[in-house]
Design brief:
alpha/beta, disordered N terminus, 37% helix, seven-stranded parallel beta sheet, Rossmann fold, 12 helices
């Protein structure tokens, strides 16, 4: 993962023939923040890391690359199991961002045992060795799923969490593990993100807005199984903004923060996706409404993130759809299994079996 070094004090730029002062270049690099992103080749990381590089950060990724590598060439890469990471591996980093683990309820329910390893044990272990290595801040990708089922109340971070299903429980355990390590020299921030959707170079079509967009264009219909339940929705561009605000927050800040672009009922999400697709593409989309039971229902306040992190979302459901339309030529192979995490995970799980639990940890989501 280490970038190459030069023996000479100066190197010649092939493009211009200029002499480059290598010691000065090294001093400049030493002043730039160095970040390690665990699971950075996944859905969020593949969209976030180009933006971090644009801001001048030195970014390395540790991942098992289940879904390939769509990262910029400037990214440092390490293919390694997170449980094999050592203090020595982490000693040069200013911050570690944990984006690895299992990403949603279908994957968690398919294999609850792996879900608890990836989402609870792995982030806690990595935070533990990061602190020992002298890392200044650890960022954990948590989820609003920790709230479980609420009854038409807007929840902030002080409200009780009561998830009763594997994904939400494991994300809460991950939070508790990493937050227990906070002290004056080790900042920990957990982002309880809403249900994310939008375009990424490592695309997914198994997320609420993305799924509705896919079926609208591919099948001409949007199916809504439970129109009345609430979900906080998070646009990819707002997720990127949240991570940037956290990375650049004052070193004294720690805590949990709700992150969302807005709260919607699932029925409203379907209506908004339908309206935007019809307006932008001139297609006629039908709706299929079913009234099924769901144990997940929550909406959240983001006032703490606004006031402490200066996180101010700029997008909404219709904005997500516009971005998907703009980029859809890049992912219009609608049935590609790589766009559906559970399909890839099932195939991997059938190959390795339960005896190799740890050997999947580290892949981006």
């Amino acid at each position: 993962m280490a970038r190459g070094t030069k023996c000479a004090a100066f190197e010649v730029s092939l493009a211009s023939g200029r002499l480059i002062d290598e010691p000065a270049k090294k001093r400049e690099e030493e002043q730039r923040m160095r970040l390690l992103v665990a699971g950075g080749a996944g859905y969020v990381g593949s969209a976030l890391i180009p933006k971090l590089l644009e801001r001048g950060y030195l970014v390395d990724v540790v991942d098992l690359f289940w879904f390939g590598n769509n990262l910029p060439t400037e990214t440092g890469l390490l293919s390694k199991d997170l449980f094999d990471m050592t203090v020595e591996d982490l000693k040069d980093y200013d911050q570690v961002i944990f984006l690895a683990g299992l990403s949603n309820d279908p994957m968690a329910e398919f294999s609850p045992n792996k879900n608890f390893v990836y989402n609870a044990a792995a982030p806690a272990y990595l935070a533990y060795i990061a602190k020992k290595a002298g890392v200044k801040r650890y960022v954990y990708a948590s989820s609003c799923s920790v709230y479980g089922y609420t009854v038409n109340e807007l929840y902030d971070e002080t409200r009780p969490v009561a998830s009763s299903y594997p994904y939400g429980i494991s994300k809460l355990q991950g939070e508790q593990g990493v937050m227990s390590l906070v002290d004056d020299r080790f900042s920990v921030i957990a982002l309880r993100k809403g249900t994310i959707s939008g375009y990424s170079p490592r695309m997914r079509l198994d997320l609420i807005v993305n799924t509705m967009f896919r079926t609208a264009l591919h099948e001409g219909v949007i199916t809504i199984n439970h129109p009345s339940i609430w979900r906080p929705i998070l646009a990819m561009e707002d997720a990127i903004s949240a991570y940037i605000r956290v990375i650049e927050a004052h070193e004294s800040i720690s805590g949990t923060f709700n992150i969302a672009s807005g709260n919607y009922t699932v029925g409203e999400v379907g209506d908004l996706v339908k309206a935007e697709v019809e307006q932008q593409l001139g297609a006629k989309i039908s709706l299929t409404i079913r009234h099924m039971q769901d144990i997940r229902n929550y909406k959240v306040s983001i006032e703490k993130a606004k006031n402490v992190l200066s996180f101010h979302p700029q997008s909404d459901v219709r904005g997500i759809v516009r971005e998907l339309i703009k980029e859809m030529d890049k992912f219009s192979d609608w049935d590609n299994p790589l766009y559906h995490n559970i399909q890839v995970f099932r195939e991997l799980d059938s190959k390795i079996g339960n005896h190799a639990l740890g050997k999947l940890v580290g892949a981006g989501r």
